[in-house]
Each structure stands twice: as structure tokens, then as C-alpha cells.
Write a structure and sequence with these properties.
Layout (H helix, E strand, L loop, with lengths): L1 H21 L12 H7 L6 E3 L2 E5 L4 E5 L4 E4 L2 E4 L5 E3 L2 E3 L2 H12 L1 H7 L4 E6 L16 H18 L3 E4 L11 H8 L4 E8 L9 E5 L24 H19 L3 E6 L3 H5 L4 E8 L3 H7 L2 H19 L2
Parallel strand pairs: 8-9, 8-10, 10-13, 11-12
Antiparallel strand pairs: 1-2, 2-3, 3-4, 4-5, 6-7, 11-13
Helix pairs in contact: 3-7, 5-10, 7-10
The structure holds zinc ion.
Length: about 325
Amino acid sequence: MLKKNLITISLLLATIFVAKDTFAMGTKPIHPNSLEELSTNYGLPKYIQKNNNLFIKGPKNSLVFHIGSRRLLFNNTLIMMNKPLTAVNKEAFLSPIDITDTLAPLLAPKELLQQHPIKTVILDPGHGGSDPGARGKSGLKEKDVVFDIAKRCQKKLQVMGINAVMTRKKNKFITLKNRPKIATKLNADLFISIHVNSAGNNAASGIETHILPAVGSPCTAPSKSSKNVYPGHKNNKMSVLLAYYVHQATLNATKTCDRGVRRSRFSVLRNAPCPAILIECGFLSNKSEEKKLNSPLYRDKIATAIAKSIEKLVNN
Ligand SMILES: [Zn+2]
């Protein structure tokens, strides 16, 4: 009797799984993780394939995927997904985590924003005190550049009626561990860490914005994959939206190279209690970018872009 019941249950479950998996519609089954299903769910046209590139041009948003790559061009802004887009038997598939945690926030931000009212924003200028951060050839220090950008951004946000608090109010060293703690203490709604970059290759230039990779997904830079769950992971969806807004706005304002919204397990991103990003506003190791970052006008452009993108999120 028990054996017969087990067989019946197994058959029933198999039927349910087959039905869910193939999502039978007409004669052609549509897989729930396929790019075609994504288009159907968000009222977008079916993708057009040219070589290894897949193009979706909707009324509001344009998307370009590349087979075998994590690169997504969302409205011409580069966003690194958690996993690559794969192609099997002339069908393209996204990882389930990118459907829920990358594409859904970008394609349907309204609902998400309504669930996350924004009152307090933490601006976290990197380094400080005994830690200068990166240093340009002219002697320009990262700690000074990022403090000025954060301070300007704070003033602009306050004018907009948004409560903005800096993790350091002067040239003072604060540990990486203590920065997200300030956000926790103030019950903050967004955490924005501001840095400038440096590289061995003097030609490297442009802006990159970092968010956490999903649990079990790799960073963009080569690293060991990790299944650790961090406090920051619970805000993956809002973080990608915040990153996209800030990244796009700062690129538009500066007309510099788009190095993408990247995935990194930086300490402040792992431990932030709210949606969090870390923006690298340019390269001090690049002579022409160092010159730009030394200009108050250029720093003001970046600060304005960050403030305006937060205002956009607040007003959803
Ligand atoms: Zn830094």
C-alpha cells in the first residue's frame, strides 16, 4: 500500500515538474529562464540575434546581451550580471538569480522603490587620516578628492530635503568595519562609498560602480567563488538599481569611459545594512583623469550626478 502511494505521489510530482519546466504554450514550450520568457513577462519584443549579440529594443528600455558573457548593456550602460547568458539549441537562457535580482529591479523599478522609502543616505568618503588611499603623480590624494565629492554631494542632498550623513566629517581614519556601523546606528536607507581608482596601467580610465555578487556567484575580478551569506545580500535588488542610476548619471555628467557596474565583495558592501554601492570616480594613475579630479568643477559634476540620481530614486 505504502509503495503504491509513493508511486502515485512520484507520478504526480513528475507531472507538476514537467508542466512547470516546459511551461507549455501552444506547440513550442517556453522555458521560464529563457530570454524569450523575460520579454513576454515585461511586454518587450522578442530579441533579435546578430552573431553573438542579442538585442531587445523596448519602448522604454534597450537591452543587449552577449552569449557566454555576463555583460549586459542596459540603456547603453554596462552592468555585469551574476552569471553569463547561455545558449542551448538556439534558445538563450539567463540564470534565475539574474532574472529576479538583476533584470526585475531594472525593468520594474517602481514596485521596488515603493517598498524602500529613502530618508537617510550615508555618504562614505574612503580612506582618511593616516590612510591617503591612491596617490596621483602630482601628489593628489584619494582621501582628499573623495572627501570633497562627498561633502559637495551632502550639501546638494540637504538642499533637496534628503538627510545625508558622512561617515567621516574630516580628514580622519575610520576602519572599514566601522563605516557600515554608522549606517546601522542611523537606520540609513542607502549607503554610498566614494573612492577613486589607481592601476599599474597608466592608460586605464573611467568610472566603475561596485555591488555584491549574489551568493555563490563570482566577483567580476578573478576570485574564488563564495557561498557565504553577508548582511549586504538581503538588499541585492535595490543595490543594483541604485548602482545603475548613479553609474549612468555620473557617466553622463563626465563623459568618461564606462567600466561597468561590477560585482565585488568589498567589506563595506558585505556589511552594509541597507542597499549599498561603492563608486570609483576615475583613475589617479591616469594623468588626464588626475588633472580632471583635481578640478573642483569636475568634482562638483560628479557630486551633482550622485545627488540627482538619489533624488530620482526618492521620487521614484
Ligand atoms: Zn579607495
